[in-house]
Amino acid sequence: MTRLKELCALEGVSGREGAVREYILRALEASPAEIQASTDALGNIIAHIRGEKRATNKLAFVAHMDEVGFIITGATDEGFLRFSAVGGIDSSVIFGRRVRINGRYGVIGGRATHQLKGDDKKKEVPLDKLLIDVAAQNKQEALKIAKPGDVAVFDSDFVKLRGDRIKARAIDDRGGCALLLEMAAQTPEYDITLAFTVQEEVGLRGAKTAAFQIEPDIAVVVDSTTAADIAGVKADKQVCKVGGGPVISFMDKRTLYDIELYDTIFETAKKIGVTPQAKSMVAGGNDAGAVQLSRTGVRVAAISLPCRYLHSPSCVISEADFNATLKLLHALTGEFACMGT
């Protein structure tokens, strides 16, 4: 899991994916496979990999490089930084959290509980009432640390928990990026294209331009998805389970997935001894929502890592799920490359 650990350590808030992009380009260059990689105007990486055989379908695998985070909007006279969220972040997961900004550390804070009265003690503190404490003495000092437009990320270590569980920040979707890089580490059976996209967390923007450029016949989006298999959540609301295998989507808030591809994924998984799980709720969305509608339309599927505490400093996944997903992606290259011929 070294590659995943390295990717999760990088800062890459939407629109500021440069460090992640540089890492991926270096990894692609080091591969023994024949790869033609380029970067478009938005910052997407498009990598065409020549396989052992020619494919009749143009097959793309897509993962996004960006993560949720915070963007600085100003500073108070007292020296605290104002900010807004970049992507969907619940205010309940950020109070008191340490963040990194321009190589410095800060803490997201607000009024302490003993300073609250009445119903305020029962309410979540809204984002616009929170500030980043960077230990500045005044506004001028704070703005020397970070100016409006700079970004901050959660500061959270990559840790191996009990069994095969892993905790890290930004697994959404550095997990998908790591899987695609593992695919690129050897020559695939058929020609494939890998797309590492930008700005997924703020509206699937990079995927729209990447798909337009690639013109795939079939695209598989590789992402991380919410696993709510925790205490207090009813079984029918858990979406998927960590340790339950790759998650296959039939529909979400942005996409109704190709049923033939969906069925083929389950059939392929059975043949290779992988146990997948269907995403049990119509919720969320991913780059497939943009890819599907590109040009005259693209057949899409989504395969995700089940991940607890998504969009928080402490995402949790299973190493076994990661390995099973990689095995399934390799097998699907052969299945999808010549489907329908």
* Proper CATH architecture of the largest domain: 3-Layer(aba) Sandwich
Query: How is the biggest beta sheet arranged?
Result: 8 strands, mixed
Question: What structural class do helix, strand and pairing data support?
Answer: alpha+beta
Number of domains: 2
Number of strands: 17
* Biggest β-sheet: strands ordered side by side in the sheet: 1-2-12-3-13-16-14-15
**Would you give the CATH topology of the largest domain?**
Aminopeptidase
Principal-axes geometry comes out as globular
Q: How much strand?
A: 25-35%
Q: State the name of the first-level CATH class of the largest domain.
A: Alpha Beta
The CATH homologous superfamily of the largest domain is named Zn peptidases
Short description:
The chain has 8 helices and 17 strands. Helices cover 26% and strands 26% of the residues. By secondary structure, it is of the alpha+beta class.
Please outline the helices and strands.
Blueprint: H1 2-8, H2 18-30, E1 34-39, E2 45-50, E3 59-64, E4 69-75, E5 80-86, E6 98-101, E7 104-109, E8 131-133, H3 139-145, E9 151-154, E10 159-160, E11 165-168, H4 171-184, E12 192-197, H5 205-214, E13 218-226, E14 247-248, H6 259-272, E15 277-278, H7 288-291, E16 299-307, E17 315-318, H8 319-337
